[in-house]
Amino acid sequence: MSGSGTAPVGQDAFGTLPHGTPGGAADGRGASGDASIIRRLARWGSRLDLGDAPDRVVAHLKSQILSQLGAARAGYGHPLGRRIGQAYGSPLQDDPKHAVHSLSMATVCLDFDDTAYAGHLSHSTVNVPLIYASSLGLDGRQLLTSVLAANETAARITAAATLGPFRGQTAGHTHLAGAVAGRLRAENASADTWAHALGMAFSVPTWSLSRGFFSTDAKLLVAAVPVQIGLSACDGARFGLTGPEDVLEHPQGFLHRFADIPLPEEALAGLGSLWHTETFSYKIHPGSAYTSAAVDCAIELHNALAGVDHREIAEVVVEGSIFTAGLDRIARQHRIGPGSSVAALNFSLPYNVATALLTGSLLPADLTRPAVDRPDRWEVAARVRTEHDPAFSRHALLATAPLGQALRRAGERAEAWVRAIDARAAEALPPDWLEPETDFRWATKNLGARVTVRLRDGRELRAERRGAVGAASGPDGTDHAALARAKFLACGGDPEAVDLLSRLETLRPEEVRRLVNLALAGTDDHTSRPAADTRATGEIRDFRKGTAMETAVLEEAYVGLIAAATAATSAMVGHQASVPRPGDRDTDWTLAHIALSDRLLASTARQVLGGAEAGLDNGPAMDPKAIEELTSSVDRDVLIDLVRRNAAEFVGLVARMRQDQQATPVAVRLVGDEGEELFSGAVPWGEIVRMRAEDHIPGHTDRLRRAPRES
Predict the structure, then answer these.
(1) What is the pLDDT of residues 423-471, one digit of tens each?
(2) Do the Cβ atoms of 270 and 434 come closer than 8 Å?
(3) Is the peptide bond before 624 cis (omega within 30 degrees of 0)?
(4) What gap in Å lies between CA 117 and CA 513, rounded to an integer?
(5) Rounded Cα–Cα distance for residues 399 and 158 (Å)
(6) Residue 37 is inside which H or E element, if any?
(7) Alpha-carbon span 284 to 249, nearest angstrom
(8) Among 218, 384, 517, 676, which has the minimal tally of Cβ within 10 Å of its Cβ?
(9) Tens digit of pLDDT for each residue in 84-142?
(10) Cβ-based neighbour number of residue 429 at 10 Å
């Protein structure tokens, strides 16, 4: 983000504002009334079981762990990581506290870790359970449960403070929660122990300073120090030391000091149904997430530049959102060159883009000698400039991550907060009436970029991406398991560790120890291979409840619908059509109708779930006035995102239902385009869902697919 807004302190384009900006401090009470935020999180997290999470969330846990292990191997394999090992020891040393301290530095040192909607969680939420697994004798199911509890606790508290000075890696407080929850769930500690440990830890949160973070090795402490504070708080709480359990929301507490707009609701929203774990975006090369899409574009352009001498490159223009432009502005405040620290290189968009253009990749080896001494990289880097494109900002702020969900929670307060930083960013904000997401199964992170290479002979080469490879991409999804596997193996990981992790929920304690040793020591580990698990598949406990309504067909229908809607959009990112095409109005009408219909269906689903008398009247979704009001007030991208959000909410509610609830009678009234009644009577809920999945949504999808051809 450029311009004369408030100088940022955190990693991204949004900086700190004076305390007392819109939103104010929390009122000192728990967001739910009498119980504090910490108390409610402690009660929930201490009892959380892996079987409470859907299979898709468990799949993310496995990818998260494997990808984090890849980041660890890359870190320790780099000269900076070797110095970490010399100073702080091996991640396999006997003392778990010292081992976690070392590991947390190694996983952060190359900025190769993955990101959730709210936080770089894994430095604590994976590292702590993983290291303590051996000493505590955890089996695979317990390890996964501990990571899940840590993710959900840390992400929620981080989200509550995300509209403030610290986000991304600078939000060290993420790891206070991650360390406490990760260790205490592994130890099966009581809710009281959780509450006091969290209260103690959040009484002394860390405060990162940009002076050291962006350009020196001081960045290595950003996760390691709060992890140690969290582990120390666990020690004290286990032996009766106490902390203030209202420290998050108290007027003299954490949110008042660390959030410009405190969002205590984010810490508690959707416990057990809104899974932050499935908001993960996975990195395939080291560096800030704000530069990833630009690097992907540069890699794409590498082949097109085959045979072109680097001296023939006249200019490289990177267009991106306020996040990309803002990070570049911050990084350029530091002198970056061959002798710069790894942290400075990680944040240098010019160096990373130049490297990708010239080599077709960006690897950990590119962050050390001899790669950083190559003159051609710095010559091209000197020709890279960044421009802010409001269209990319629009897409970035509409997405779930990194700020969209928080901005939706803040509502009308968000505009003043953003405008105080940069008025142009405020102009990119979606309407404040968009509600927060209630289901993250189709979470998005759209930090896109466009890279244009101008050659001295007048030719231009261009590549564009809506989001980075591996980023959360809504219904389009990403094969995160394949990405994590490729990353781990590329970093020298043992294939046996991949196999063990793929069936982690079935591993015995000795197999978990084998996994940890293999993953962190690789081929240097000569421990004996454990005997194969000879238990019959049928003897392995089924951790899923098996009683939920099947949603696969329904989800597939919505995935196709949203893909068709995206394809029918009149313009690519950053290129708005000046004249509406024929068929556009029909497309917008269809999207508005679907969004309104799904909101009605979600209301009916809640009635069925609650055992109340259920009814469904589609009149409001057919009302021309309501549809016209919606389509005239927002653009196509907002309509598509509204469909995504409402569909996810509806599917999420259906997934929570028991099979026997399919037979619940629903009083249905259907009207046509002119308001004429088409049907009135009782229909089983399961039949309504079936028709939605097999008839209604596929029909709308076909209509959307025809729209471009009609133009």
Answers:
(1) 778 888 888 889 999 999 999 999 999 999 999 999 999 999 999 999 9
(2) no
(3) no
(4) 30
(5) 18
(6) helix 37-47
(7) 37
(8) 676
(9) 999 999 999 999 999 999 999 999 999 999 999 999 999 999 999 999 999 999 999 99
(10) 18
